[in-house]
Amino acid sequence: MLSTLRNPTFRHLFAAQIVALVGTGLATVALGLLAWQLAGDNAGAVLGTALAIKMVAYVTLAPVAAAIAERLPRRAFLVALDLIRAGVIAFLPFVDQVGQVYVLIFFLQAASAGFTPAFQAVIPDVLKDEDDYTNALSLLRLAEDLEQLVSPMLAAALLTVVSFPVLFLGTVAGFIASALLVVTARLPARARAEPGHFWGDVTKGIRIYTRTPRLRGLMVMEAAVAAAGAMVYVNTVVLVQARLGLGEESVALAFAGFGAGSMLAAFLLPRMLDRREDRPVMIGGAALMVAGVALVPLVSGLAALIALWALIGFGFSLTQTPIGRIINRSARETDRGAVFAAQFALSHACWLVTYPLAGWIGAGAGLSVAALTLAAIGAAGIAAVLRLWPADDQTVLPHNHPDLPPDHPHLAEHGPSHAHAVVIDDLHRRWPKAA
Predict the structure, then answer these.
(1) Strands (E), 85-191
(2) Which distant-in-sequence residues (6+ apart) come within 8 Å of 404 by Cβ?
(3) DSSP character string of 172-194
(4) CA-CA distance, 134 to 142, in Å (whole number)?
């Protein structure tokens, strides 16, 4: 897996991701403390609103940002967004009203909605070999999991010697360092795209997504993952402190169990994907998550909860890490950024629904009812995946083009009835019926 870091461009991008993630983790801790300072007992409502703003920005702005990215140089686009994020964070220590926090969070997440899909779309252009790309996806997943463990500990250590606003300066430094690392990376040139209408480019990723069977299945799988994952992210603190009667350190241990399971899966995935197709691995991961959530009513102690959260974390990594491989084989190089943006927006739309659902049901009907309801939603999602994503998922498909004139270059190259790797594009606006 580490051999992928021999590629200097990926090494720089990976380092950029790490420092940005650490900075983001510090900001998460500092934002919670800022909310407490501004709102006291209403800090939870402030953070919940900030989270909703984050999700709305992701869902609505990612496709727009992808269309803008297609018209700008890659390096300049990524560096500009890193610097925007650093600038927004630099203002947070000086706010004195909750409304100011909401405005800054919106601009911060708007920049992230542009940066993340654009960054994801660069990696397969840097690492053309699928094994290298799979290793890179596992490394990036490990980095995200490690951030969840390291950043809170780093924040706790810093808070012993500095006040919490200084944590925001660490975030600013992280984003600036990320920008510098992107500047020094030799990014491959973007594939030349056909000139198109801006709003057509905004919706292009969604159109490709909804017309490709494996991507439709992936979209529904994200709903199943979000249903199960929301139980972990929203209700862990209630499970530990209300049901089990334990303290804050036990909450951290439960989340650590989730992260450890995810990291273990990321280590094992490259070998697993050498032997198995993406579809059964990802469906198996979603099934582990749903089964784990369904067992929540039986949890009676911290050790059992940590083990269950580790199982769900393992399944989470199995479903999320291979997504880049699926998108890579489902879109032309010129369309990849738009499809990554569509994935980013659609997946966060699922979380935007399941986050409040987990909280409302848990508060109104109890944690056991919440767990079983979310597990049922997840199970329905998996059933839909089995129907939407064909088990025999062929890339090369026989088809013809009755709408094209006989002398069209595509028919001249391939013949009237032919077979080749199919993706949705201007010549293939619908998935071939033969599939």
Answers:
(1) none
(2) 410, 411, 427
(3) HHHHHHHHHHHHHS-PPPPPPPP
(4) 12
Supply angle C-alpha 314, 315, 317, rounded to 5: 70
- pLDDT-based confidence at residue 182 (cuts at 50, 70, 90): very high
Do the Cβ atoms of 180 and 357 come closer than 8 Å? no
Examine the pLDDT at 57 and tell me if it is beyond 80.
yes
Structure tokens at 98: 């909750």
Could you tell me if 46 and 35 are in contact, meaning their C-beta atoms sit under 8 angstroms apart?
yes
Q: Which two tokens stand for residue 410?
A: 């595509």
The packing angle between helices 165-184 and 74-91, to 10°, is 170
Dist. CA 382–CA 223, nearest whole Å: 9
Q: What is the pLDDT of residues 246-263, one digit of tens each?
A: 876 787 788 888 888 988
pLDDT attached to residue 435 = 42
Residue 420 β-bridge partners: 397
What is the pTM for the complete model shown? 0.85
Q: In this structure, is the dihedral angle defined by the CA atoms of residues 145, 389, 59 and 197, taken in order, positive or negative? A: positive
Quickly tell me which residue has 């974390």 as its tokens: 313
| 52-79 mean pLDDT | 87
Rounded distance, CA 435 to CA 326, Å? 17
* Residue appearing with tokens 């399941």: 354
pLDDT tens for 92-115 read 888 888 888 889 889 988 998 898
**Bridge partners for 288 per DSSP:** none
How far apart CA 114 and CA 57 sit, in angstroms, is 10
**Phi and psi (nearest 5°) for 188?**
-65, 150
Q: How would DSSP label each residue in 259-279?
A: HHHHHHHHHHHHHHHHHS-HH
At residue 412, φ and ψ (nearest 5 deg) are: -65, -35
Conformational region of residue 343, where left means phi above 0, alpha means psi within -120 to 50, and beta covers everything else: alpha
Q: If we measure between CA atoms, which residue out of 92, 144, 147 comes closest to residue 116?
A: 144
The total of other beta-carbon atoms located within 10 Å of residue 142's CB is 19
What is the C-alpha to C-alpha distance for residues 214 and 404, in angstroms, rounded to an integer?
26
Neighbours of 407 (CB within 10 A): 7
